[in-house]
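G., the chain you wanted modeled:
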Amino acid sequence: MEVPAPPNLKAMHVKLRKLREDQEVSQEAMGQLLSISQPQYQRKEAGYAPFSDGECSQLADYFNVTIDDIFEPNLMAHQTLLNKGGDYRTLYNLTGRLMDEVLDMLYYLKQELNQKKKENDKLREQVEALQQKLKRQTG
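Predicted structure as tokens:
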């Protein structure tokens, strides 16, 4: 079952479709330009899948316009897709793979931060123990 794209994502691709149709370029030709299949291109143009930054750049170059002329910046920065699990995911102009890498890095950094907090607590306890020992020896 095809999940409908949110309205703002569909609106984002209206300009691209109009450019393509005005120049009488087929979806198959656009897929070849981007090195993807016609069905993949069709999904992207319809708003069911995001274009990568590189693809946006290729499209702008092909039509001799800026990326902002095709993709409205305010919409491009807030693409929201419904994934297979039924959760909405906001893509801030990042590919899914890059988003996953960012999330993995955040998880790793949180783990590292927790480890450093534990190490800090141990060091704090050792400092307090040494301070008490010093007081006993000098007191």
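The domain at 7-93 is CATH 1.10.260.40 (434 Repressor (Amino-terminal Domain)).

Shout if anything looks off.
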